[in-house]
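Progress narrative, Year 2. Work on Nuclear pore protein from Ditylum brightwellii advanced from sequence curation to structure prediction during this period.
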Amino acid sequence: IFAHAKVYRDKLRAYATLIKALGAQHKLQDATDMGFGVLSQLGVQCQSSLPDTSAVLRDLMALKSSLEDLSGDELLNSREMVNSDMVAAMSFLQPLLLYNFLSNGEVLLTVVFHMLYLTLKYGICEE
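Result:
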């Protein structure tokens, strides 16, 4: 599949299956590394290494500020995410959320921050 794909998007389903297979085999770090590689190809820059504490605090404060500016109704009535790359990114972030919850709490924060950021910037999606 990977060798015959004409564009990167053609590989996404195969990568999703491979990442879930790695997770099922408890190769959570391999699944996370591959997932972050796919995310970077989709334009979402994440790193699987442990985040710097100051970077985590900076991201937390930025998200807190963004969320404080929204009312509950605004959040519930957010637009639907239509950017296909970001919808795909969210579908890769979802299993990474679980894998890092089970294995690496520090990287979990990075995944959560990216999911919240994408939701605030691009809208809500099913993932």
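The chain has one domain: 8-122. The chain has six helices and no strands.
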